[in-house]
Amino acid sequence: MKNEIEIPLIKAEDVVAANMRRDKYSLTRDVQAREFNEAIVTRLLAESSKKIKCDKCGKEFIISLDEKPSLSCPDCR
Ligand SMILES: [Zn+2]
Questions:
Q1: Is the pTM of this model over 0.90?
Q2: Under a CB-based contact definition with an 8 Å cutoff, are residues 55 and 77 in contact?
Q3: For 16-58, what is each residue's pLDDT tens digit?
Q4: Ligand 1 centroid vs 76 CA: distance in angstroms?
Q5: How far is the CA of 41 from the centre of ligand 1 (A)?
Q6: Around ion ligand 1, which residues have CB less than 5 A away?
Q7: Distance 25 CA to ligand 1 centre (A)
């Protein structure tokens, strides 16, 4: 019979590995968010709704179709 209670010890290496995983995850999430934003711009242009809300100042601006799709108004570019 075993009387000892096993307490899982968190090794320093595990903490470092977990931090690295978290950094990698947030980087992936940032990329996905950017791709998602680009998809929104593309969809808005496709729907001929050329009014886009600036992702920096929140001001709505009109984007022309020959312009490169952007989420930032001319003032923030
Ligand atoms: Zn702006």
A1: no
A2: no
A3: 888 888 888 888 888 888 888 888 877 776 665 567 889 999 9
A4: 4
A5: 15
A6: 54, 56-57, 73, 76
A7: 29
